[in-house]
Every structure is written in C-alpha cells, then in structure tokens.
Amino acid sequence: MTTTHVRAACPHDCPDTCALIVTVEDGVATEVKGDPGHPTTAGVLCTKVARYAERTYHPDRLLYPLRRVGPKGEGKFERIGWDEALDAIAARLKPIAARAPEAILPYSYCGTMGLVQGESMSSRFFHKLGASLLDRTICASAGATGYKYTVGASVGTDMEQFQHAKLILIWGGNPIASNLHFWTRAQAAKRNGAKLIAIDPYRSLTAEKCHQHIALLPGTDAALALGMMHVLIAEDLLDHDYIAQYTQGFEQLKGRAAEWTPERVAETCGITVAEVVELARLYGRMARDGEPVAIRANYGVQRVRGGGMAVRNIACLPALVGAWRHPAGGMQLSSSGSFPTNKPALQRPDLLPDAGKPPRTINMSTIGDDLLRAASPEFGPQVEAVIVYNANPLAIAPDSSKVAAGFAREDLFTVVLEHFQTDTADYADIVLPATTQLEHVDTHTSYGHLYMMANNAAIAPMGEAKANTEIFRLLAARMGMDDPCFRESDDELAAQAFDKRDARAVHFDWEALKQKGWQRLDMPDAPFARGGFPTPSGKCEFYSERMLADGLDPLPAYIAPYESRASNPELAAKYPLAMISPPARNFLNSSFVNVTSLRATEGEPHLDIHPGDGAARGIADGDMVRIYNDRGSFVCKARVTDKARRGLVVGLSVWWKKLAGDGKNANEVTSQRLTDMGRAPTFYDTLVQVEKAA
Ligand SMILES: Nc1nc2c(c(=O)[nH]1)N[C@H]1C(S)=C(S)[C@@H](COP(=O)(O)OP(=O)(O)OC[C@H]3O[C@@H](n4cnc5c(=O)[nH]c(N)nc54)[C@H](O)[C@@H]3O)O[C@H]1N2
Ligand SMILES: Nc1nc2c(c(=O)[nH]1)N[C@H]1C(S)=C(S)[C@@H](COP(=O)(O)OP(=O)(O)OC[C@H]3O[C@@H](n4cnc5c(=O)[nH]c(N)nc54)[C@H](O)[C@@H]3O)O[C@H]1N2
Ligand code: SF4
Ligand SMILES: [Mo]
Asked: Which residue ranges does the record annotate as region Disordered (predicted)?
C-alpha cells in the first residue's frame, strides 16, 4: 500500500480557511485532518469538514452529465455523455449569444472560495460572451460597504491577536458554529482574564458561553453603537490624540451622537438603559486604561435594511477610544481586503466585447424577480439561459417561491455544475458533475486570517466529474473561443492569483506555496496604530464625503428595519414575530445538509420560540408549526425556549428544501428587499406569524 499526505485548503465559505492534510491510501482519501503546523488551524477542523471524505465519496455524488427527462423541479434525469452535454449547451447558447448575449446569466457564489475554481475561467468565458454580469451580494456586501466608507477596506485586527484582548465584543456572530478558530482564541483570552460580551438577539451557542449577553432587537445595532458613542463622548472616555490625528468629522459626529441618549437607544433596541451605559463605560474605561479592547463583528448584523450603516457605526467605535493602537485592539469584520489578489489577470475583463459599455448587471439577491421579468428598455432582454455553479439559489436566495417560479419557466435554459442533485439541480436542463476540493487544484485567500493557501489535488476526479475550470475551457472551445487564455491550466491560473508587485505578497510563489501549503502576508501587527486608513482622507471617516455623494447620510445614523413592530406597526399587527435564520452549526449554508451524519446531528428543521409567544399561540415544545407571511409559509418543529427573546423566532438554516418536512425552508418567508448600501439581501428583516400546523 502507498500512503501519501497531501496539503490542501478548506474551500468553504467560512472565515477560518483551514489548512488540511489529506491522507491518501492507494489513491483513496481516507482521512482529512487539520494541519497542526498552520497557526490558526492548529490541527483542528470543524465537524463538517472532518467529514469531507464522507461528502466526497457520498453515494449520491454526481458522476456523469445528466439531461432532464421530467418536469422542471421533479428531479428526473438520464445519463448522457460529455460530448452530448457540451453540444446541447452550445447549441442553446450560440443563437442567444448571437442575438442578445445579456440574456445569458452566470449565477455563482462561494460553494468554493477558491480563486481558480471560483471566478477565473468562468469569468473569462462569460466576459468573452458578453453575458450579463452578476452582482455577488448575497452575503457580505452591505457590511463590507459600510466598513469601507469608514475604515477604507476589509482590513482589521489580526485573528492571531485576539487572545491578547481584555474585552471582546462578539457582535452579530456565532463563532462556535461559524468561526471556530476565532472562538479558540476568544477562549484563550477568557482564560487570560478577558471579558466576552455577545450582542445578538438570540442566545446562540456562543452567547451562552460569554460573560454577558445583550439581546437587542434584530436590526437595531446601529442605534446601540450610537448610544455607545453618546456615552463615550458625554463621559469623555475618548482618545483625543487619536481622534485629532487619525479621524475625520468628530465635531459633526458629536452633534449626531448627542441625539442618541441611552433612553432612546434602550427603547429602540428593546434593552435596558443600564445595558447601554455599562457597555459603553466598560469599553471606554478599559481602552482609556490602555487595555486592548476588540470587536469581532460578523455578518449577522448586516442582513437587515440598515445593515451597512450598522457596520459603519460599529466601525467608528475603535477610533473614538484609540483601540487601534494595540495589535489586539480594534475590530475585525473580515480580513479579505488584506490580500492583493490579481482578479483582472484571473477574470480578464478586457475580454468584454466593448469595454467602454459593459453588459448590464443582475443582482443575485433578486434572482426571483429578475428571472420573472420581461424584456424592457430599463431591464434589457429577458433572461433566457442561466449557468449555475458554486451556488444553490433554490435553497439560499430570498423569497424562494419566486425563485422557484423563475427557474420553472419552460422557456428558460438552465445548466447546473454541481457535486450533488441539489434543489437547484432539479430545475436544470443539463447537470454537469463537478470535482470537489480533493480532486482539483486551487489557491485561496481567507476572510478571517492572513495566509495565502494552496490546495493540491489529493485524488483523481470521481467518475466523469470535471473541475469548473475544465468545464468552462471545454465550453469555450465549443463556442468557438480560441483566445490562448482559454487553454491555461489550473496551475497557470493559480500562479497569477496574487499580485507580487504588492509588498504584502512579495513572498508569493506558486510552486513554493504548493509545497508548504500556506504563506503569511507581509502585514504589520496593528494595521491602524498610526492611522493610515485606506480611505480618501487617510483617516477613519466619522463624516464621509463619499456617502454624501452616494446619496447617503454622511454621518452615523439609525435606519430602522423594513419589517418591525416599531417601523411598520400595520404589518406587525398581522405578523407580530421577527424571524431570523442564521447558520446551523453542522451545515455550511446549504452545503452538507445531505451528509447523513451531519443532518442527523442537526435533526430536523426547528423554530425556536419564546415560551410566552408559544403559550399565546397554544404551541408546546415539539409541536409542528406553520410559519407564514404574505410571501409564503413553511412547516417545522417548534422548540419552546427562552434562547429566543420574546417577539423573536429563530430557524437555523439553510435546509435543502427537499430534505425538509414540507419541501420548503426559511427562505419562503424572507424578502427580496435590499439593504441601505451594498444592494444586499435582508434575510433577518422578516416579520411572520406562527401557528400550530394542522
Ligand atoms: N457552521 C457554519 N458556519 C458558517 C456558515 C454556516 O452556514 N454554518 N456560514 C458561513 C457564512 S456564508 C458566513 S457569511 C459566515 C458568517 O455568517 P453570519 O451570518 O455572521 O453567521 P453567524 O456567525 O452564525 O452569526 C450570526 C449571528 O447573528 C445573530 N443576528 C441575527 N440578526 C442580528 C442582528 O440584527 N443583530 C445582531 N447583533 N445579531 C444578529 C444571529 O442570531 C446569529 O447568532 O459564517 C460562515 N460559517
Ligand atoms: N435564510 C437564510 N438564507 C441565507 C443565509 C442565511 O443566513 N439565512 N445566508 C446567506 C449567505 S451568508 C450565503 S454566503 C449564501 C450561500 O449560498 P451559496 O453560495 O449558494 O452556498 P451553498 O448553499 O453552500 O451552495 C453552494 C453549492 O456549491 C456547490 N459546490 C461546492 N464546490 C463546488 C465546485 O467546486 N464546483 C461546483 N460546480 N459546485 C460546487 C456545493 O455542492 C453547493 O451545493 O446563502 C445565503 N442564504
Ligand atoms: S468550514 Fe471553516 S472551520 Fe470548518 S474546516 Fe473549513 S475553514 Fe475550517
Ligand atoms: Mo455568507
């Protein structure tokens, strides 16, 4: 028997981007472990990816191209050959491309975060076609935009510093489920005497283990941050020197913060005045005493109407108290902006038919409406063909009944590149089998740590599966695209992924990275200790000219949810409960739902409801309940628990619809309305009613 150990990287949409070591025995991957040498992975994987071999060798893996033989959505397919599949796709796409290339739409997200198997050969293909561009907003663009206006780029506190913090605000995140290796460091900080505070409407696994939990109403974080500013300013818990040297707009901010008294904030957030005041005092006093105070904000805060502003307001706090001076102080939302990736080289926007007039852009978060839209001068041509890869829109996109109706259109041609027969694949005309991370080459950034990562192929492709890149190479050839860039190998692509001219990536060398597995960026310990914010002014912008130019309030503000008791009492009279649907620990968005052992651990779809709200509706623990609003409904099992505050219900997500009881999931009731900035979805801005199911 020959045994090898292959260096790989976790491809999933998770900030931790773990370094993996894959044991291969006679060509079979027998074990996937965390690399003990990688500083943040430290030999530990989450429950999901520890099962990566189970997912790769799953009996339901798609191994051959398939053609649909039943109605859309039913899931009846027959096996065909690759030539037949590629010819069928080219035959449908060619006339559309000749007539109206924008009627062709790619739909992809982060099924893999790889720079090669994500947007490289695929983008080249769609650019050359002149297909519609896709606005990839489904996850992070609201918060990223708010952070960018304020701090300049997705750069923040190094994950490897958090164990030295003395106060950590875990704001809108549940790291035990979704950012495990950060949680390890938060626990180390706790052992060193740090205080951990969770700010979250729900008593998540993480909130349960923090010293304090502030259970505010969803979508009200911007007000809490304004209240903290109010107290910091009123009690002079400020770093005047840092403010004077490295920030812009403090005088204007003072005026705005003055409006947000702790009483007004407490009322808005549904918490006590003492919670507001004491949080601000603790944060400000510890910073004044020179202790590192850190904020780990996550995307849970920004899936509401005012999500961009919420992140912006939170991002003002570290500059007010000078927390950035310390490597373990400051804030992290994402580290993605630290990586000098060379996207133009990978994606080749120069291939567009007319660079001066780019194709229209379609927002992935409104795919339901956009697939149902007729041609018009504003919209352009009706969408006639969709090519889905690295995404499962039928399960994950909001307002799911519209998404399903769109994909069910008889005149729509749909191709899905997948590992499994997902809810989306059921609507495909042609399904193409894709390789998993064990079967292909890739390179990765991270949105939690600061290492460039390599993924070597550990095993040969399963069945007739092909890498996304190879599928787009073959499609390009079938469509008659003969530019040499469509013949570049995955290694050639990976070698272009980082811009070596940037000081942070001078140590990037693809062959060396493949050998070692990972390489840290050249970055300072404390990115903004002496200012140097990548904003237009070079300062942390409390007042933002760019926001003003973009039609937004230039100062931190509070934007109430679309759907809440306070902002929309009429709607709340019909649908009085706020629903959020954050990530389940054993799934990764909708990935892994079909892995039997992980689904068994999650059990079945649940809705957590407060005992008071349960009693008012005659709902007992374990009852089947129907959750509904004007957009739709779904059924699942109630868990009566005070983990959900009064007025809030929580359905951990994202279930495959066909593996849930009634073939529906939480996205039946979520809406396609977009956030204040970043054109992002408002998954956690949803009012519903709940009743006992018949
Ligand atoms: N196990 C697992 N890990 C994952 C994922 C997964 O599905 N499963 N998904 C991955 C992805 S794609 C992402 S984007 C990341 C991060 O994904 P996030 O969406 O940030 O998810 P969480 O870290 O679970 O934190 C969300 C927390 O925010 C809380 N929350 C909801 N609304 C509000 C609000 O208005 N205010 C505040 N303060 N809190 C609110 C929720 O109750 C929840 O506990 O996680 C990644 N990691
Ligand atoms: N209600 C609700 N909805 C949500 C969220 C929520 O919190 N609540 N979270 C939102 C967030 S944060 C996100 S990021 C989105 C995520 O939405 P998606 O990015 O669509 O993520 P997944 O559901 O994991 O689906 C990814 C698919 O890609 C496939 N895949 C993986 N690797 C490859 C590959 O190499 N090639 C090909 N062809 N396919 C591959 C996987 O098998 C999987 O089916 O969901 C959003 N939807
Ligand atoms: S999903 Fe996250 S925690 Fe799990 S192995 Fe991948 S990167 Fe690590
Ligand atoms: Mo996400």
From this structure: 334-359
Q: Is residue 449 part of a domain?
A: no
Please state the domain count of the chain: 3
pTM as predicted: 0.98
C-alpha to C-alpha distance for 316 and 331, rounded to whole angstroms: 10
Q: For residue 185, what are the domain limits? A: 152-337+526-549
In whole angstroms, what is the distance from residue 246 CA to residue 240 CA? 10
Kindly report, residue by residue over 231-278, the tens digit of the pLDDT. 999 999 999 999 999 999 999 999 999 999 999 999 999 999 999 999
Q: Which ligand is nearest to the CA of 13?
A: 1
Query: What token pair was written down for 261?
Result: 């008294």
In the numeric block, which tokens belong to residue 450? 């600061």
Protein residues with CB under 6 Å of any ligand 2 atom: 13, 109-112, 117, 138-139, 389-392, 395-396, 417-420, 422, 434, 468, 581-583, 588-591, 653-654, 666-667, 670, 683
Which ligand approaches the C-alpha of residue 182 most closely? 3
Which atom of ligand 1 is the closest one to the Cα of 220? 35
Cα separation, 140 vs 302, whole angstroms = 8
Gyration radius from the chain CA atoms: 25
How many A from CA of 497 to the centre of ligand 4?
Answer: 22
Best residue for ligand 1 mutational test, from 137, 214, 298 (most atoms within 8 Å of Cβ): 298
pLDDT tens for residues 317-368? 999 999 999 999 999 999 999 999 999 999 999 999 997 899 999 999 999 9
Q: Are residues 230 and 292 in the same domain?
A: yes
**Does 573 lie in the same domain as 531?**
no
Residues 578 and 648 sit within 8 Å (Cβ to Cβ): yes
CA distances from residue 399 to 51, 72, 370, 634 in whole angstroms, order as listed: 31, 19, 12, 12
pLDDT on residue 451: 98
Is residue 36 in some structural domain? yes
Task: Determine, yes or no, domain membership for 13.
Answer: yes
Last residue in a domain, options 482, 517, 549: 549
